[in-house]
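Hi R.,

Here's the chain you asked about this morning:
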Amino acid sequence: MKFTDQLHQASLKNNSMLCVGLDPDPARFPAAFRGDVYRIFDFCAAIVDATADLVVAFKPQIAYFAAHGAEAQLERLIRHIRSTAPAVPVILDAKRGDIGSTATQYAIEAFERYGADAVTLSPFMGFDSIQPYLQYHDKGAFLLCRTSNPGGDDFQSQRLLDMPGMPTLFEHIAQLAQGPWNVNGQLGLVVGATYPADIERVRAVAPTLPLLIPGVGAQGGDAAATVRAGWRPDGPVIVNSSRAILYASDAADFTDAARAEAIIARDSLRQAGYTVS
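And here is the predicted structure, written out as tokens:
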């Protein structure tokens, strides 16, 4: 099944736009696990089990695993998601971006080693750095476009003066992803919830692409404004929340607290979607 079809089916099944980001920081684990890098799988699997029926995707961030030599735990976690929530796609947040031969190896890592359904990529080395991922015809790839961090303005908002209409760099990336780069029909864009006006601009250029939107929750993005800016009947949004859900409690009730926070997030996004439609 193609990634976009998986996404659509998960959205219908769980009536959700919420993605839970899996960014395990052992220093913030509940007391029973705290500081133990060998309990990364246990912590993340417990979060998955508590939220699997509430989400449209899970998004493990590879750095939080690799920093602790926990790649094997990441492989095990993705297998667990497959078993526990087979209808929910996995987006590997890796932000890879390198020349074609190296990109080929990164694509093998994401899709064959880890078995992810989609991956985040940096597009700034051009199409040949994206192409190896597109050879996996059923897999998704989200290109960094208008990111949620303040430093994104350093490049992304600069205008391309030698192009018709002088688009910003992020608008140009959106145009390429909606058009000539989308050779397998599975491209999406990463746009930050902290810039809802720019989400609207991206959506105007890329009306049908899935938008992966981080920045809701701990980063301060407004869920309702995000959905109003980005959601369209033919243009899905995947709104990611990580720390607000993962670390809703540091006590023994952390799974109950995570589920409660995920329900609040899912319902607020869903209500905003009803308002748009």
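One quick note: Strands lie at 18-22, 57-60, 91-96, 118-121, 140-146, 187-191, 211-213, 237-241.

Cheers,
M.
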